[in-house]
Design brief:
- This protein is α/β, with parallel strands linked by helices and 274 residues long.
- It has a single domain, classed as Rossmann fold, CATH 3.40.50.
- It is built from 10 helices and 7 strands.
- The chain has a 7-stranded mixed beta sheet, sandwiched between helices.
- Helix 2 packs across helix 5.
Length: 274
């Protein structure tokens, strides 16, 4: 695959039809003001935990296709190619998010496609192309979560693997987000571990692994912009707590993953409907 310009042949579907709680305009604003993420950093504790998770499920993935749905500003597309040898592609309907994802691929020297598309448009050319399907912080923005997964499943080959990560807003981070940014909190369907397993099962997947993921991370709390002084202070405090905990986890080799404190919930499953 080669790096391409956005493919703009699939018009966005009306957001009301999909139950999309976060509009395209919201994401454009988000990516426009957000500082662009960097590449995968093996010294970052959070990235180390992701790396351990992916290594459990992507061995032998060289030459196979990884498609990321909701790939705006993705640091993981370059990582999947450089670490596992995957052919990579991603789709997102934010022009700015796609541009940032392409920049990260180009900077890493990684070939791949970034397609500016709406998941709920036609996309028939992508059906049955992916060996692996990854999404991070995506499905929980849709009221019909099962229907969203069924739509995503069309991109997968029979027997393909889905890897889904959603924020754990049943824990402390959800309570903080609801207090500091209720507008963004309301853009999420709140899923716990059992919910995440259920929606995948109802969409035709068989569970390989599911669990609370990560030990603690303040990054999942999104603050309003502009950020009031008191919330800037809170953000700094939570970042310091997070970094201190990461040092302790590294030193002890203990990586607690719990409903209360884990920042994410992760699911891995196999497409078994056909």
């Amino acid at each position: 695959m080669k790096n391409t310009s956005p493919v703009d042949t699939n018009p966005a579907s009306p957001e009301g039809e999909t139950g999309n709680l976060a509009s395209q305009a919201f994401w454009e604003r988000n990516w426009t003001i957000k500082k662009r993420s960097g590449q995968y950093n093996p010294r970052n504790y959070s990235h180390q935990r992701y790396d351990a998770f992916f290594r459990r499920h992507l061995q032998g993935a060289a030459g196979r296709t990884m498609l990321e749905v909701g790939c705006a500003q993705s640091s993981w597309l370059p990582y999947f190619h450089l670490t596992f040898g995957c052919r990579v592609a991603g789709i997102d309907y934010s022009p700015t998010g796609c541009r940032m994802a392409r920049q990260l691929l180009d900077e890493a020297g990684v070939p791949g496609d970034v397609l500016e598309r709406d998941l709920f448009a036609d996309n028939s050319d992508l059906e049955g192309t992916a060996d692996f399907l990854y999404s991070h912080g995506f499905i929980e923005h849709f009221e019909d979560t099962v229907g969203t997964l069924i739509r995503m499943q069309r991109f997968m080959k029979p027997g393909g693997t889905i890897l889904t990560v959603v924020p754990n807003f049943v824990g402390w981070s959800g309570r903080v987000l609801r207090a500091v940014n209720p507008e963004v909190y309301r853009m999420h369907i709140i899923l716990d571990l059992q919910d995440l397993e259920r929606v995948h099962r109802d969409a035709g997947f068989t569970t390989v692994e599911a669990g609370y993921f990560g030990s603690i991370a303040s990054e999942v709390v999104k603050y309003p912009v502009p950020t009031p002084f008191r919330l800037r202070v809170l953000r700094k405090i939570l970042k310091k707590i997070t970094k201190t905990c990461w040092l302790l986890f590294r030193a002890t080799g203990h990586h607690p993953e719990t409903r209360r404190f884990s920042p994410y919930i992760a699911y891995v499953g196999i497409r078994t409907d056909s």
